[in-house]
């Protein structure tokens, strides 16, 4: 272990330079369990990073004795970069998400639960496939696969095994869970939930292993603690039963993942769980101007269920929060794109601007506008609109109708939704297509005529072919109407509607948004050409690009300018959250969004949105009226006036 030398003490001072007294206290407190509980932008993450550097630099711990947990891989990467700029040797700090750290522990101990150390980690798509197979074997409709996957994930968030008494073993979800767990294990695979649960099991069953990790990790630091779930809590508690060496930072006002099993109770209960806790509150916000912060604070004050905090800035009020009403979604995207251009002229970098939306479907209108204006952008944490599975599926149908010899499109949708056209049938079609140098569609027609398949395949394939051909003849249909027919008659939409998961809801919203977009096109050819142009235009964008993302994925980040779009009742707060009585979490999401802004924050809302074929008048979001008027400017005139 290093000793404190004069040089190190110098470094010590260096690292602490510029921190305020409370931050400094949080960094140097090492002998007690520490909770830093404070509002957005007060330097929680900075404290965490500095603390790691401080411990290493002053010899309190070797890098390999420090475990730091971040919320996303991206946050982990950023923290690594910052750390390596402060001290050397940081590569051996265990820094990552709960999942990546548990994967590492599990790889070293996999034999203890009968997995090989080269086990695979499966993603949601694989989970859905596996659950689908099990449902099929049980003779249950596969349509519910996604909702079963969600149920299983929520159980795993609570560390509940299939034999947990709280699970009804006779229910469909319970039965599938048990089979799923056996199956995935026999494949030498684990899902994300397993990563934590298996490690917990290894710790429980092998006290010497647990002890080894307890001895190893002298200090454990956790960012965004308000969004940990029960399993993560149990895992931390095992590694640090009395909280020694534990430092957690978070903000109850930024708890936004309850729908994914996070429990804000973990942070609220912290002091009771760890008796030797010292709580540090940071009150000075270094990120935002006074008006932005004032507006955000006035909004979050409407939540009843919160601890409440003081938060202030150094007196520089900066720009007021600008709220602008748009006529419709198109107009909204135009207003935002124009403001981005204006700010760019005022030398704000594209990379310092972000458009934050509540739901993924909202990105489309912005993507098209940004492309039209030649503004470089990236969609963060989520696929670009036209890259999403459901959008590609629907477009593939339309391409196939327009041009039946488009074999890529044929291959994409011939069995979507599932209609019993499996790999064997596809192999035959491919063979025929190669042999006769014809398209897959032509091969299908030929083989149907010659009766070359078994009866069930004959039936479903010929229904598919007829469906595509009949729509191909309907020149009278607009692309929007045609798309609606595809979604209805193939059952694509009803399958999603019946799933009732957050994911299926998102997909449904995306499809509806595509239907809306299609209304701007009179014929299929123009639309298909438009899509290929849009898809092509997005290539080759460098680093200095506008970020387009959901509010959820903006957590922890900051930008000079933040555009918050779609502040309308039903969009934000989102309908589903209103129905589920989760308004306070929506408000926290609004607070997270606003507090990402350093200098400029803009909110837009549209008076009208087109949903399906109908214009719908939207009410402004209730959150707008909750912003304290002194920090806000309402703008109805043209965007440029504000800056000129
Ligand atoms: P969030 O709740 O959004 O995660 P946070 O509390 O983690 O925010 P940080 O991201 O650590 O806040 O800090 C916000 C900004 O303030 C960063 O740009 C950071 O560099 C800056 N900052 C924090 N503390 C100081 C300080 N003492 N002096 C100058 N800048 C600071
Ligand atoms: Mg942070």
Please tell me about this protein's structure:
It is globular, with a radius of gyration of 27 Å. By secondary structure, the protein is of the alpha/beta class. Strand 14 (597-611) and strand 15 form a beta hairpin. Strands 9, 10, 11, 12, 13, 14, 15 and 16 form an eight-stranded mixed beta sheet that branches. Strands 3-2-6-7-1-8 form a six-stranded parallel beta sheet, with helices on both faces. It has four domains: 5-104 and 197-284, 3-Layer(aba) Sandwich (Rossmann fold), CATH 3.40.50; 120-187, Arc Repressor Mutant, subunit A (Orthogonal Bundle); 292-376 and 540-643, 3-Layer(aba) Sandwich (Rossmann fold), CATH 3.40.50.300; 387-532, PCRA, domain 4 (Orthogonal Bundle), CATH 1.10.486. The longest helix is centred in the C-terminal third of the chain and has 18 residues, at 455-472. Mean pLDDT is 90; it is low at 1-11 and 639-644. Helix 5 (98-109) crosses helix 9 (192-205). The protein starts with 5 loop residues before the first helix and ends with a helix. It is built from 29 helices and 16 strands. Adenosine-5'-triphosphate binds at residues 18-20, 23, 40-46, 251, 254, 286-287, 556, 558, 595.
